[in-house]
Design brief:
The chain has two domains: 52 residues, Multidrug-efflux Transporter Regulator, Chain: A, Domain 2; 74 residues. Helices cover 72% and strands 5% of the residues. The chain contains five helices and three strands; from the N terminus they run E-H-H-E-E-H-H-H. A three-stranded antiparallel beta sheet has the order 1-3-2. The radius of gyration is 25 Å and the shape is elongated. The N and C termini lie far apart (80 Å). GO terms for molecular function: DNA binding; DNA-binding transcription factor activity. This is MerR family transcriptional regulator.
Length: 144
């Protein structure tokens, strides 16, 4: 195995993704292993790992696989040398759109989290109210 290369098991451990998921992302062209060992094992670099982590971070924000593919293509093209100014500006604009979408989805999730926390708080209040009432009833019955 070459310097800087990791087998899929290490990549899975470091990313928290399953072997199956990593293989699937390869099958659909999102993240291809950078190399193969003599035995045919997939070998990944830190850049591949970063790409997998980017995909993983997009998932809870409900980006589709097609959105993910589009963003990865934008990032790949921006990394190319020799892009003319207009093309670079177009790609930067698309990247800005992804950033705005991610920020909006984060705001939406924060709103959902606030509602969930309020719900949990109210359930706790209800539980305490009912348990205190039940406790008072038990004490009254014991005093009789």
């Amino acid at each position: 195995m070459g310097a800087g290369h990791m087998q899929i098991g290490e990549v899975a451990q470091r990313t928290g993704l399953s072997l199956r998921t990593i293989r699937y992302y390869g099958e659909i062209g999102l993240v291809e292993p950078s190399a193969r060992s003599r035995g045919g094992f997939r070998l990944y670099t830190e850049a591949d790992l970063d790409r997998l982590l980017l995909i993983k971070r997009m998932k809870p924000l409900d980006f589709s696989l097609e959105d993910t593919r589009d963003l990865l293509q934008v990032l790949d093209r921006l990394a190319e040398s020799g892009l003319d100014g207009d093309r670079r500006a177009d790609l930067a604009h698309r990247l800005d759109e992804f950033e705005r979408a991610a920020e909006q989805r984060c705001r939406d999730l924060r709103g959902q989290l606030a509602m969930a926390e309020e719900f949990a708080q109210r359930l706790g209040d209800q539980r305490r109210t009912h348990l205190e009432a039940t406790g008072d009833q038990v004490r009254k019955q014991q005093q009789r």
